[in-house]
Specification:
Length: about 180
């Protein structure tokens, strides 16, 4: 890709697509010599999730996750009009990729359970799907900003854990959708 996008007066050169999520497309970009993620909000339909104003939700959720102590990439800029976010790039492998390639997520379960406890204490659930978690330097990072009010139904232990190993749910996801490139 050789596109360039302006975000808050800075020019970011788009390098490649990182993934498509429910709310937008995330791209690896170069902005002032620094690798960053540029997320462009989209308005494509999603049959299993209801949105309000997506860019406002991203901003609000970022603040809520920070307050809850969840390890997330820093938001570097937000362009409300163009519906673009620039955030710190967390390079590494996703938990999804590890599981898909036969590795166990066991070494990371204590960290994700700590995140789950912090999120629950703050009254939040995050999107526990393993594409949203990147391992860098021995730490897992939640690279999305999505969060919702806490419910037991969507907690890590009741929903997320179903995708953190080669479970029937994980296998069905692979069969239905193949290998996603969905991150933050």
């Amino acid at each position: 890709m050789s596109e360039q996008w302006a975000v808050c007066g800075k020019i970011c050169r788009i390098l490649r697509l990182l993934g498509r999520g429910k709310g937008g497309y995330s791209y690896l970009a170069d902005c002032d010599g620094q690798q960053v993620v540029v997320k462009q909000i989209h308005h494509e339909p999603c049959d299993y999730y209801t949105f309000g104003n997506k860019i406002e939700a991203e901003h609000r959720d970022y603040q809520r996750l920070q307050a809850a102590g969840i390890r997330i990439p820093q938001m570097l800029a937000i362009d409300m009009h163009a519906e673009r976010i620039v955030k710190e790039y967390i390079g590494g492998v996703t938990i999804f990729e590890m599981i898909k390639n036969g590795a166990s997520a066991e070494p990371w379960l204590a960290q994700v359970r700590d995140m789950a406890a912090g999120a629950k204490a703050a009254g939040l659930n995050i999107d526990w799907f393993p594409t949203n978690f990147v391992v860098r330097d021995g730490l897992i990072w939640y690279v999305d900003y999505e969060c919702n009010e806490y419910t037991d139904e969507w907690s890590f232990e009741n929903w997320g854990i179903r995708y953190w190993s080669r479970t029937p749910e994980f296998e069905a996801y692979l069969k239905d959708r193949g290998s996603p490139i969905t991150t933050g």
